Description:
Elements: E1 3-7, H1 12-23, E2 27-32, H2 41-45, E3 53-56, H3 62-72, E4 76-79, H4 93-114, E5 119-125, H5 148-167, E6 171-176, E7 179-180, H6 189-201, E8 208-210, E9 216-217, E10 220-221, H7 222-233, E11 240-243, E12 249-250, H8 251-261, E13 266-269, E14 276-279, E15 285-289, H9 307-313, H10 321-335
Parallel strand pairs: 1-2, 1-4, 2-3, 4-5, 5-6, 6-11, 7-10, 8-15
Antiparallel strand pairs: 9-12, 13-14, 14-15
Helix pairs in contact: 1-7, 3-4, 4-5, 6-8, 6-10, 8-10
Bound molecules: NADPH dihydro-nicotinamide-adenine-dinucleotide phosphate and guanosine-5'-diphosphate-rhamnose.
GO biological process, one term: 'de novo' GDP-L-fucose biosynthetic process
Pfam family, one: GDP_Man_Dehyd
Organism: Lentibacter algarum
Amino acid sequence: xxxxxxxxxxxxxxxxxxxxxxxxxxxxxxxxxxxxxxxxxxxxxxxxxxxxxxxxxxxxxxxxxxxxxxxxxxxxxxxxxxxxxxxxxxxxxxxxxxxxxxxxxxxxxxxxxxxxxxxxxxxxxxxxxxxxxxxxxxxxxxxxxxxxxxxxxxxxxxxxxxxxxxxxxxxxxxxxxxxxxxxxxxxxxxxxxxxxxxxxxxxxxxxxxxxxxxxxxxxxxxxxxxxxxxxxxxxxxxxxxxxxxxxxxxxxxxxxxxxxxxxxxxxxxxxxxxxxxxxxxxxxxxxxxxxxxxxxxxxxxxxxxxxxxxxxxxxxxxxxxxxxxxxxxxxxxxxxx
Length: 337
Ligand code: NDP
Ligand code: GDR
């Protein structure tokens, strides 16, 4: 039986990946950081909390990496833990650099010393592309991060490549474009929209306040993307791969699709700071822009080319943007019944 260790197992991707690996017959271990109350909501909602062995682990604590890597004897190590909210990275730039950048080399160097045959996955991100250099973006597109988060992830990406080339570690980076699900964190824009719309559809009256409505993202379903992570580690040779749908959508369009899934007919008016949306059927104001949600620097357009992953890994995205918006809105609506 293969053993896998997942950092960030309590997060969106960690939970879906743990479920996938359990279904494949793996013994699954995960790292959890010390907080006042253990947070296993996502693992519980997938019905797998009891099937996983949890270990104390913190991205900032070298000793926790040493102990885990020495004791668990894993075959595969998935590094999914991170300060993952781009918006917060301007408020926590040093912490983000440490957790999302330096921690990667802490793990890699411990693996190199204790378990050089263990396969390693690094959660790289389309946020590294930042300011548009090329459309669509591929594994070779020039990186130009636009946030402290993106800059920290660039270090994690390059140090993974460097340990592969320097020491022959089987270390791969997945450059993943945005992927969402009913388990998505509540501060990310898709979930903020679907939770807000579900509350409005259940009779609430609080409009959703958002920032930049014109940003474009290439959004897929998280369940598909964790399958791609696993496929990367099954290859004979480690490499870097983009996972994306190849379709880009504005925040406004995602909002419209989620609203339609809940039976709304949206009327958009104004622009910039004055933009609003009203449901024609009820006359309710459902969205207004609040400039406090604008970012100091924005990533305007993300659209990925997943051809390498399709050709070499046999991977593909199975949920389109309307299906994703509907899945999330319906789940949040049902949760309020
Ligand atoms: P989440 O925010 O849902 O999960 C992050 C996880 O990291 C949580 O389990 C969290 O633990 C853990 N964590 C945070 N800080 C620490 C720390 N100091 N020590 C140990 N664990 C910590 O993120 P996702 O699941 O969405 O993303 C997974 C990874 O993929 C992240 O690295 C993210 O940056 C990257 N990524 C995500 C994309 C996406 O669209 N989802 C796209 C591309 C990359 P806790 O539960 O205690 O908070
Ligand atoms: P992102 O996701 O920054 O792409 O990072 P997020 O959902 O936070 O933002 C997407 C876009 O929506 C715009 N936006 C808002 N965003 C939030 N969160 N809240 C708002 O009110 C709002 N209004 C507009 C943002 O400006 C942005 O353009 C996610 C994370 O999962 C990262 O960890 C991951 O690396 C990248 O995706 C790929």
